[in-house]
Records
---
Amino acid sequence: MADIKRIGVITSGGDCGGLNAVIKGIAREAYALGIESVVIPNGYAGLYNLVDLPEVVLLNAERVSRIEASLAGSEAGHSRVKISKIDDPNKYERIKEGLKKFGIDALIISGGDDTGSVVVDLSEKGIPCVHVPKTMDLDLQPYSVGGDSTINRISVFARDLKTTGLSHNRILVIEVFGRYVGHTAFRGGVGAEVDCILIPEIPVDFDVVYEHMKLTYFGRIERSDVKAGTYIIVAAEGMKAASGEMLYDESAGVDAFGHKKLAGAGRYVRQQLEKRLKADPEVFEFMKRVGMYAPGIYVVPEVREVTPGHLVRSGQSSAFDVVFGQRAGAVAVFLLLEGKTGHTVVNVVGDKVYYMPTAEAIKRREVDLEEIALFESLGTCFGRRPQKYHYKLIETLEPKRRHV
Ligand code: F6P
């Protein structure tokens, strides 16, 4: 057992649901074991500046009870700072001095792939730390806290937008965060029963999307007794066009980790559909048939894009993330005590605590396209010609316990 008297808690990268549950899980488990835990504020920026802080917040019973586990975001604060990129040759010594100043023996750090790469780095530099997986993008190997909350929020937004879509007979494109993978767009979109989901894993053929849209949206309005219909698309911010055309607003710049800020997918989808609607003579006939046509004003259906941005990761955490967060935070304390520095919590199943090397945990996980084919067979468009779903029946007594 490692001799740990005080743990520093860091949250890093983008905020999301479930993080306060992680903090509470760490603090309460540590407390139960007679170990103190303190907040290192503002992610890795705070770790670098720890030595200059006059004090740190002790997560005692009273302070912890004031943290609301079901609120998204993090009481510990965030920043996107990669320690190795800080322009200071003494940065690691400075961090060690800060930890010494406050008697912090080890760190529990919650974050995504970039944060995890710093966990590996700090660990190699002799700073004991373990990693609790967190990212709304769900692109880590294990489940990461925040994913379920985001999926639920995307679902609610997409479902709610149907009322305005139906009232105006609009085609609505909702652009959602998710970086280079489509996990949350996919699950959130399916959860809201949207018509079309565009994800980075499938380069989009807009002729296919247009055909699907025409069939679905035109049909809906024609069948409706009040001539109402909408068509909802969820587009992941990292989606690509099969044509190879650039989708993004290059002026958006890069974040502090050096990643290109993704922006413009929704606008691009809207433009692609508008172009096709305007060039299609059948659209004019349709508009007249269903009574939508107003000469000089309304000659093709409207396509609008909506970008909820940070709303998909803010507000309330899902119950699943509150449960997962508390469990993962609590068992991260055990990993530290067992000397598992440089490792990531994977899951807890009964009395079994699963973990893996952080260097493995942060390898990018993409959406499984086999599963996409299943949803294509149910009628959802994914921007390609639907593919056949090939199933294999596997009898098992040990179900895989991955969330998504
Ligand atoms: O990685 C999480 C994430 O929400 C991405 O999906 C998104 O591209 C990015 O963070 C946005 O980052 P920021 O909050 O720094 O604008």
---
Amino acid sequence: MARPQILLYGPMSGEVRERLAQHFVIREWPGSEHAEPFLAEHAPSIAGVATGGDIGLPNEIIDALPALRIIAGYGVGYERIDAGHAAERGILVTHTPDVLNDEVSNTTIALLLAVTRRIVAYDRYAREGRWAREGSPPLAHGIAGKRVGMVGLGRIGMTIAQKLGVFGCEVVYHSRNRRDDVSFQHYPDLIAMAGGCDILIVITPGGAATRHLVDRPVIDALGPKGTFINVGRGSVVDERELVAALAEGRLGAAGLDVFEDEPNIPPELISMDNVVLLPHVGSATVETRAAMAGLVIDNLVSFFEHGKAITPVPECRHLQP
Ligand code: NAP
Ligand code: 8YV
């Protein structure tokens, strides 16, 4: 039987290409300027797509591929793939949940400690020779005994919450649904939760449903002594309001791994000593990225060889036997 044809939409590592090539015929997306001749030649036979969560797949391309049966996303967040639209066409979308829980939760804790213990500011202070010239820098803050509000308590949020327990934090959470399997206090009202917290951590999906969930009233409720951490998606926070609150001293400090217009960071944040900035590296270790890539490949292989993918997104689960 002929091997299925897979479109690689966006960059994939050499190792991923090699492993995919053992099972499939690989077609590389040539870029939008060469789309027309590419689609004319290959669209009728492309049965699967592998793509990055940060790139997704436009609906125009989904609709231009009549033989498409599966879109395998690299990343747990899949807001750039219209899973509802794909499902309507009978196309399964998969993502890479769980394999990155540990890494993203470690990054979150590292970012939180970097902000509260002023690790990056202290590093700058030491490098600039200020310790020798000016003496010890101002004290930082500890996190033991602090109340942390989790905005999102799913796979990654729960892993972060468990680790925060080891640091002696009190965890509460906001989400649309209350979980029956945890003893953490649930707040249906995010402003009420933020008002009683020292630290707010965002770890929800992006997309329309969470856009600007953290807005000015939430930021003001967290207040001038509050610390805000975002490892979810930049779109969940009204970034203009966040920058204004930091600049005006209405918010104490922030640690950000994600931004509204990646890879662009609001320039006002660059010079702020109470802000730690990361270039969306929550899952960015060799080990975790290999596990994510492995799951992309395993989803495609399992789907084409056994008729069932491993980790379909919720919108598409009904398409599986
Ligand atoms: P998950 O298991 O689906 O958890 C999502 C959590 O967010 C759930 O608690 C969910 O609860 C809550 N939520 C969803 N929509 C909400 C809304 N409209 N309002 C309030 N809460 C809402 O997802 P996960 O695996 O933990 O991943 C979470 C997200 O982290 C990903 O989607 C991705 O955007 C981000 N992420 C970032 C990085 C990074 O590198 N920075 C890496 C991996 C993932 P309810 O459904 O009850 O509301
Ligand atoms: C990845 C992420 O950096 O999994 C996610 O949702 O945000 C990160 O792990 C990204 O998806 C890679 O495309």
